[in-house]
Amino acid sequence: MKICVLSRASRGGYDPSVFHLGQRRLPVVAVLKQWTDAGQRYFDVRVEDGRHFVLRHDPATGVWELAAAYSGRKVPAAVVRL
Questions:
Q1: Would you state the torsion angle of the CA atoms of residues 59, 61, 62, 67, taken in this order, to the nearest 10 degrees?
Q2: Is 57 exposed, middle or buried (0-12, 13-18, 19+ CB in 10 A)?
Q3: How do strand 63-70 and strand 24-37 relate by DSSP bridges?
Q4: How far is CA 20 from the centre of its chain?
Q5: How far apart are CA 15 and CA 7, in angstroms?
């Protein structure tokens, strides 16, 4: 699912700071983990209410996508497969 992400400069490029999921604005309070796979960057982030999301960024196109969502307890709440 494509999403709108605002990012900030970091050592490795740009890290997500806020993203929009539908009408909800979700500030990122922590980037817990990040990795690269098949040329795309992945970010495991935590938002204010404790939920975790995996955001995928394609640096070649600039497109951000929601790859997974988790409750605050790190139990899968929903996984989006593209």
A1: -80
A2: buried
A3: unpaired
A4: 10
A5: 5
pLDDT digits (tens, 9 = 90+) for 14-42: 789 999 988 899 999 999 999 999 999 99
What ranges do the domains of the chain cover?
Answer: 4-79
In order, the DSSP letters of 17-70 are EEEEETTEEEEEEEEEEEEEETTEEEEEEEETTS-EEEEEEETTTTEEEEEEEE
Locus of tokens 């992400």: 5
Count of beta carbons in the 10 Å neighbourhood of residue 16: 23
Rounded Cα distance between 31 and 10, Å, is 11
